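Hi all, long-time lurker, first post. I run a small reading group and we've been trying to get comfortable going from sequence to structure in the token notation. Rather than ask abstract questions, I figured I'd post a concrete chain and ask someone more experienced to write out its structure so we can walk through it together at our next meeting. Sequence below, copied exactly:
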Amino acid sequence: MRIGYFGGTVNDGTIDDVVAEATQVEADGFASYWAPNIFGHDALTALAIVGREVPRIELGTSVVPTYPRHPMAIAQQCHTVNAAAGGRLTLGIGLSHKIVIEDMMGMSYAKPIRHIRDYMNILGPLSRNEPVSYAGEEYTTHGAIQAPGMQPFGTVIAALGPQMLKAAAELADGTLTWCTGPMTLADHIVPSLNTAAEAADRPTPRVIAALPVCVTDDFEGAKGRAAKVFEIYGSLPSYRAMLDREGAAGPEDIAITGTADEVVERIGQLGEIGVTDFAAVEFPGNESEADATRQAIKQLL
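-- Answer (accepted) --
Happy to help. Here is the structure in token form:
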């Protein structure tokens, strides 16, 4: 299982902060650096800059919402970012949430599965440097992207429900999950994805699982902090469904907390259930916890 890092400075820091964070993550030996695309800096643009400054690790988005971006336009952007990064980009995309797409952006969220399948039938070939000719219900595109030195880039889809997991297995390289606990990964995410990939004669998919992590001797304090920091995710329907499946009241119940040995053991167990990549979301309460958390995760590198 590869160990990656879920960055936060793309939303709450400057571009210099993003570069500094990614530089430290690479220096610490992590395999990948993932930048969320929420309401801060644009993740892909930030990763283009990171790609010129940080030379070795995989760079990924976690995740870019599809609805506001035409698949051919995002493919063109990704090829540019991938060139800046020397071929190390993995594009993580997702539907976002109805409250964001409809209430904030005024776009229809009526047919999300049809949307992602049309989207990937265009984005998929373009990501592999192939021309596309596709007519769907949501998108129709006939064209190609041609730029000197283009390299293919990977794609993963944020998928939790059965139909989204099937689409991720058939049309992308796998999935990237958040707020999804180990039992749900073991009995739902991994088997659903692998079964769909096998039926479609596709390679074994990536399962990139992101979870909150904190090494601490104040378990109740860390649990309370997680409940506050990650509160919004417990109310979003797609994450709520996964938390209910896990029997978790909220994200605080799936956060990986405890002693260094306990944290290392719990992360390691994810690889045993078929998680191919773990992406750590550190949430320390102080500098001591921050250092202890990073040192524990580094034992797995």
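A couple of things your group might point at:
The chain has twelve helices and twelve strands.
The first helix runs from residue 9 to 12.
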